[in-house]
Design brief:
The complex is a heterodimer of chains A (416) and B (495). With 416 residues, chain A is α+β, with helices and mostly antiparallel strands. Helices cover 38% and strands 21% of the residues of chain A. Chain A folds into two domains: 215 residues, Enterococcus faecalis V583 fold (Alpha-Beta Complex), CATH 3.90.1710; 172 residues, v583 domain like (v583 fold). A five-stranded mixed beta sheet of chain A has the order 4-6-5-1-7. In chain A, strands 10-9-8-12 form a four-stranded antiparallel beta sheet. Chain A has a three-stranded antiparallel beta sheet with strand order 11-16-15, with no helix packed on it. The two termini of chain A are 12 Å apart. The relative contact order of chain A is 0.16. By secondary structure, chain B is an alpha/beta fold. In chain B, β19, α16 and β20 form a beta-alpha-beta unit. In chain B, α1 runs antiparallel to α4, α6 runs parallel beside α7 and α8 packs across α11. The longest helix of chain B is centred in the N-terminal third of the chain and has 16 residues. Classes of the chains: A alpha+beta (416), B alpha/beta (495). Chains A and B meet through α11 and α12 of A and α1, β2, α2 and α5 of B.
Amino acid sequence: MRIIEEANREAVRRLFDGDPVLVDVAPAAELIPSLGERMLLHAGPPIAWERMCGPMRGAVAGAVVFEGWAPDLEAAEALARSGAVAFRPNHDFGAVGPMTGMTTRSMPLMVVENRRFGNRAYCALNEGLGKVMRFGGNDAEVLARLAWLRDVLGPALGEALRASGGIALKPLIARGLAMGDEMHQRNVACTSLFLRQIAPWLARTVSDRERLADILAFIGGNDQFFLNIAMAMGKALTDPARSIEGSSVVTAMCRNGTDFGIRVSGTGDTWFVAPVEMPQGLYFPGFSEADANPDMGDSAIVETVGLGGFAMAAAPAVVGFVGAGSAADAAVFTRSMSEITVAENPEWTIPSLDFAGVPTGIDVRLVVETGIAPAINTGIAHKKPGIGQVGAGVVRAPMACFTQAVRALAERLGVT
Amino acid sequence: MSVFIVNEVRKGLYLDSVALMRLSREVAGLPGVVEAALMMGTPANRRILAEAGLLAEEGANAQGNDLVIALKAESREAAQAALHAARARLDRPRAATGEAAQWKPRSLRAALRARPGATLALISVPGDFAAAEARKALRRGLHVMIFSDNVPVAQERALKEEARALGRLVMGPDCGTAIINGVPLAFANRVRRGDIGVVGASGTGIQEVTCLISEAGGGISHAIGVGGRDLSEAIGGLSTLMAIDALDADPGTRRIVLISKPPHPDVARAVLERVSRSAKPFTICFLGQKEADLPPNARFAPTLKAAAEDALDGRRISEGFQPGVSVPRREGVIVGLFSGGTLCGEAQLVLASQGRRVASNAPVPGSEPLASAGASVDRILDLGADEFTRGRPHPMIDPSVRDDMLLKALADPGVAVVLLDVVIGYGAHPDPAGHLASLLATAAPGHVPVVASVTGTEADRQSRSRQIATLERAGVLVAPSNAQAAELAFALCRA
């Protein structure tokens, strides 16, 4: 027991000590040399083509065309089915990706450096709302936008960030929480704060005025732009807390649309996997639960560091996806997450909870003991490939992941 | 099928998009509505409306600061009705904070973080898990009351030994009643505070004694429950001994009442040996035991009522009680339908001491088991026993569980008197007398007479006097204590 408590204190200390800074945007192939040709990284725990859900297959086909490995979507699907494309989880390459989480060689990735521990983590640029690849979109419009991200936005942002010396994310998140963001469903404040900091550097580095205007409009017109930055930050914060012998703190939660997987510090790289659940939520006009795909994406990394569903009290409106949407309902979410976490973040606080820190460091033992599963704020994709986002809501991590993890940890520590 | 698309634009009204999605779902669920969307009229949202086939001319001209109500319905009437409903929902007042959800801790850890000064945990979980929760509480330095039953006896023993080593008290398992520092726990009553301490292995026994003392003008310092098995050989009175230590050391406790079924002889010896080392006077009520070899500072009480009287230094409770109504004596047996186990036991003892033959599902020494009893024997039942409560609420919470048996007894020509208890206080039904009265009103006229007593105090939310008045109006003969109710039932029987 004492080993676990001390290991957990160490895990949370590393989470809190981290100093994540957004430093660069560069093509994936440059950042991740082991990301080879015909290799595709996806969200969630490992999965083969046969078990992939509709939107994941749609995104895979789109990404294959985008990389030029097949001329069209039909050929791309055939190629993917033939086994000629290697599928690997983002998490094994220091990366994360929202929803389908496609990462391929030519895609520009944002780089967050944890300056306290020297590690780096990556996430693709946010494509905006509507029909997008992360929700399984793969038509010409989707691919054209990805090309613009690759050819225009990515290089420009990379140059501006390098010129700026990097943007420290911890203070930015602290201010965003006070402004009503929880960094999963709500990123409007952090996106604005980010834009305010990066705009002068873009103005210095982008000489073409029209191009600059396009870039500023794209970031400013997408309330969720910051989500992907928050995700890379989450990965950069959690990686140093991995593999602490005895620790029962969760270091990753992610979903591939079929399975939900978690990793726990004290059990290294083992995935504890269970079927994903269906989010509870609200739908865009013309869509309903019948259209929804089960839960998907690496974005639950933000809950792993105490944001998203864990910081619900900061963004009361978000709780409306599953309840009456009152501030008190939102506070209940955050307080109940404090029952399954080891500590409160001293730097990220929520004004409406008398500046209590966000609950951080999910302890698999507490999850099993209380029966309270982590709450994750999420978007909902259409279950058919190529359609995109149809709603948003809240989903619970499946309890089976946590019971498996507790058993494995007990076995490892020789507890019977 | 023709569809009607209606748009309405509300200028200068902003609502959060999530709130609007919720409203959209509510409106879309109204009869005759095919699809509904409430959105701010930004270009992106207008495009979504158009793709969903919901955009009409008014909506198409909306601006980003306008709120668009867009409806598709099966008829013009349905569309208008939905539009009306959407307007009403937009204009309804916001709920005040007080009506909103309140967080309740789900774990001991969270509860202690919210209340760091807490000293006691009350545990009510299925029996298989109670010992584990109790151990957690003990290790965090808390005293523990375990309401749960079905805790294995070996676990009880281990818990109580650990608690003793930690200097903490375990009340229970199966502890239904305690009053600590004036705070009632589980099934307990609002009694006066005073200098009489109570240690009891029985919930309704503690309730009856503390209420009788309080209503007679005395007061309670603490009433400590120990669980029904504490004085068995297996447990050895571990909690009883610690409770006596605590009350002995408590300057606010002048005298101590001990209530239990007859303990195992070895345990009784150990407990009485501890009593003999105290300077305080003790009242010993081992219900079902005729006498005991007591140390000089202890006196024996054969009933709960006698225990209360002894604790009040011999003051008599409702001496010379006479029921207000005279009822002709009848031939037949007495049927007792009890919600309190110890009240059932006390009634058996009183009747047996008058020479009645008594049978019960929970027989005390001198009573027969129910199964082997003949038709001429009084049947005094504990309806709170496991065989009656499996999968049903306890009769103290829901008195209707004795309705069928009561109606049957009332119409039974072989029954002379029906004897009942009515237990009020925290945890109990809000108006058990009212329930009985309404049931009696449905019984045939000239039914078997009913005798009852009310265990509770005037300060209880159900109010003892109000319960008595309700019973008397319904024709029930109400005695001032459970023991006197049994005596009255006996008096109504022709020998």
